[in-house]
């Protein structure tokens, strides 16, 4: 994954977290850092139709770009 894709995925995931989605990593971090940690750990990924999908945890994480 390139740095641009990483930033876009982290931004989309941070938006989900702000709206109340449960974090998939632990720790006391800001929303932006939690999103970055989740993307780096492979907890969320991009799929072809322009959504972000969760890899681990209860249910998928979808977000339209």
Keywords summarizing the entry:
65 residues; alpha+beta; two-stranded antiparallel ribbon; 2 helices; globular
In short:
The chain has helices spanning 3-18, 31-40; strands at 44-47, 51-54.
Structural summary, described in words:
Strand 1 and strand 2 form a beta hairpin. This protein has one domain (3-54). It is of the alpha+beta class. 40% of the residues lie in helices and 12% in strands. It has a two-stranded antiparallel ribbon. The relative contact order is 0.22.
Strand fraction band? 5-15%
Outline: globular
Q: DSSP helix count?
A: 2
**Biggest sheet features:** 2 strands, antiparallel
Given as residue ranges, the uncertain stretches (5+ residues, pLDDT < 50) are none
- Report, as a whole number of angstroms, the end-to-end distance: 17 Å
Structural class designation:
alpha+beta
Look at the structure and give the mean pLDDT: 79
The largest sheet has its strands arranged as 1-2
What letter string, H or E per element, gives the SSE order?
A: HHEE
